[in-house]
Amino acid sequence: MSSKLLFTGFQRVRVDSSLRLCLPADWRRHAGEHLYVILGRNNGHPVIKVITQEQFDEKMQVIMMSSYTPSEKCQFVAKLASLCRELTTDKRNRISIPPDLREKLGLEKPGAVTLVGCGSHFEIWKPEEFEAFLEQELAGNGTRSVGAKHQGAADCLRPCGKRFAVYKNSLSLALHSDPPMSMGGQ
Q1: Which residues span the domain enclosing 67?
Q2: DSSP states of 95-106 as a string?
């Protein structure tokens, strides 16, 4: 997995009536034209995780290079492909949030979201959820501190020996210990 810090900081951005948001200027050159989104959680808060084409390709490579059987690899690729959505940035560096993902986050249209840089990817948060997360972190009630060893099972599909992390038999693109949110009525 790439250790480059491409996306840092956080900021609130407007979402227009067509469910589009404009990427911050300093993130645009790293984002590229194609991005992938997946619904997930960060410390219990629902988020939309956004990864670049490069990170998506790296995750696919981790699966293909794992020690799983061809049948298991096929299942994990299918799971990853079904949970991700590909987005394309337009000429004005905007992306459209799929309506069902917006609904799962409880975002209203039009409105605002908070974009949160997470190093190699970024997350889209409901502003109120991010404020609650910040208050929790500032109060010292966060689940982990910077530099703490990862304690969860799902750690960004990174190699764990010759395997990659899975959480309860589902893939997670999270950099956190929470599993991805269900897209169906599970």
Answers
A1: 10-138+149-164
A2: EEPPHHHHHHHT
